[in-house]
Amino acid sequence: MDISHRELKTKARYAGGLYFLIAVFGFFGIMYVPSHVEVIGDVQATFNNLLEHEFLFRAGIYSHLLNTVVFTMMVLIFYQMFSNTNRYLAMLMVAFVVVHISFEFGSEVLNYTAIGIAKGHFLGSLELLQRQEWVYLFLRMANYGTVGLPIVFWGLWLIPLGILVYKSGFIPHIFGILLIAGGVAYMIDSLYFILFPGSGGIVKILLMIVYSLAEISFIFWLLIKGVGTPEPGHQI
């Protein structure tokens, strides 16, 4: 599908806006909400926090669901933008996003179940301590399904996106290189999470700098510039 340069720039800015929303929803659901609920290693405190901040926790669940909708819209726009560059890579990018989103939905089912257990809607016949332990288990499983295991697929979708950006001719090559580096950084981060849990230290901080720089710079380029003038020999 051929699109004009003006339409391409509009799509790029839409994608940038959606990417920014993903960052906002992600911060709220992944960092802000858990910081008010989960106390690592303290089952009772986590249980009490969940009941005390139930509305906030439910808002976090909804933010994750909104995130998946926005993510789907964004990757479809990217597909429209880059399918002429390389259709196979564009399809691969979408496929990795679909897998990532499936993890997100599964994690929110676990979170919602944790609320039901905490309020006695499920497993109500168990002793309080047992319910607290079940709630903590479900919350940790949901965390692994949101920011643990799916990290690998977040890295995997960024790599074909980076290659497409690099080859496109209408976005500076540097952003393609940064996105590929960011995708690799996410992959290494997932390696540490799975094989060496609790370790990483300075390495994980450096990885965070790499993928944060890649995504934030790309978001602002899309929002401010959109796309540049296509290089000679490149088809839009």
Counting helices, strands and paired strands, the structural category is mainly alpha
Backbone CA Rg: 20 Å
The low-confidence runs, each spanning 5 or more residues with pLDDT under 50, are none
Rounded to the nearest angstrom, the distance between the terminal CA atoms is: 9 Å
List strands and helices in order, with pairings:
Blueprint: H1 5-37, H2 43-52, H3 54-82, H4 87-118, H5 128-148, H6 151-168, H7 173-195, H8 202-224
Helix pairs in contact: 1-3, 1-8, 2-5, 3-4, 4-5, 4-6, 6-7, 7-8
Describe this structure in words.
This protein has 236 residues and is an all-alpha fold. It has one domain (5-224). 80% of the residues lie in helices and 0% in strands. The longest helix is centred in the first third of the chain and has 33 residues, at 5-37.
Task: Please summarize what this structure is.
The protein has 236 residues and is mostly helical.
Please describe the structure with a list of short key phrases separated by commas or semicolons.
mainly alpha; 80% helix; 236 residues
